[in-house]
Design goal:
Lipocalin; two-stranded antiparallel ribbon; 20% helix
């Protein structure tokens, strides 16, 4: 009886496992699969506009845009902007970007003083930025739809498509703590429900226009339309260099085994200090 019981138990377990195999092996829904690109997908990249090289923002134009095309702040938000503007002018700038957090969208485009680089791969445009390790943005061009409830993050979820030589992008799911900044010292958190629409295109062989329409119902009276200009430089001396946020808060040292390591220093503003005088 014991042998029969064991055989019966094994048979039942085997049957149960067999019945689970088809369920476990079912193909996920198509929108969960990211198929490997084909040779045709890679060849299609050659038909896209040439955005190679390193792109530098026109900082003078950034300032001009804020002056000639001011942000339509809500009346209750304007005093916050005026306060931080006054603080900056009186020598007490807040420093929006000293906390080591990413700029986030749309400030990554609006006020950045650092170079950007575009990488084209099948189904995606990747934006890389200089200065710290958090300037990485993915724009999906594989035909996917924006999720109904995207996971919030600093740069949001960006989905785009090509209209001729123009990349058209919609971004949602931006964290409400991300600033809508008009300088590196003046800005207000976006709040809930922000949406950024972009049209990115060349207006000259080495000039890129980045047109934005920013919806931020928590702080703006209406969508704000603005443009930022970037200039290309192909010289190798202008390649993006590594930037490590808060590297200046550490100094070179050694551990008890003699390995070279970084140890905390008293320095607290992120700048890399010169070596001490001997």
């Amino acid at each position: 009886m014991r042998a029969l019981h064991g055989t019966t138990t094994a048979a039942i377990l085997g049957l149960a496992f067999t019945s689970l195999v088809p369920a476990m092996a079912q193909t996920p829904p198509p929108d969960v699969i990211d198929p490997a690109p084909t040779a045709a997908d890679w060849a299609a990249l050659g038909k896209l506009p040439d955005w190679s090289g390193t792109w530098f923002p026109d900082i003078t134009d950034q300032d001009k845009q804020i002056t000639t095309n001011p942000v339509p702040w809500k009346p209750e938000v304007q005093p916050q902007v005026a306060f931080w503007d006054k603080e900056e002018k009186e020598g007490r700038p807040r420093g929006l970007l000293l906390n080591c957090l990413p700029h986030g969208m749309p400030s990554l485009i609006l006020i950045t003083h650092n170079a950007n680089e575009f990488l084209f791969t099948p189904g995606r445009v990747t934006l890389l930025g200089e200065s710290d390790g958090n300037r990485l943005r993915r724009i999906y061009t594989d035909g996917r739809k924006l999720p109904d409830d995207p996971d919030p993050n600093f740069h949001g979820t960006s989905v785009g498509h090509w209209e001729g030589d123009t990349l058209v992008v919609e971004t949602r799911g931006i964290l409400p703590q991300v600033f809508l900044a008009i300088s590196e010292a003046v800005g207000v958190p976006l709040g809930e429900g922000a949406v950024v629409h972009e049209r990115i295109h060349l207006i000259a062989p080495d000039t890129l226009a980045h047109d934005l329409v920013i919806e931020a119902p928590a702080i703006l009276t209406r969508p704000w339309e603005t443009r930022r200009i970037y200039y290309r430089n192909r010289k190798r001396s202008y390649d993006i260099v590594e930037g490590v946020c808060r590297q200046g808060d550490f100094e070179e040292g050694t551990d008890k085994w003699g390995n070279k390591i970084y140890v905390p220093t008293h320095q607290q503003d992120g700048n890399i200090l010169p070596p001490p005088a001997k």
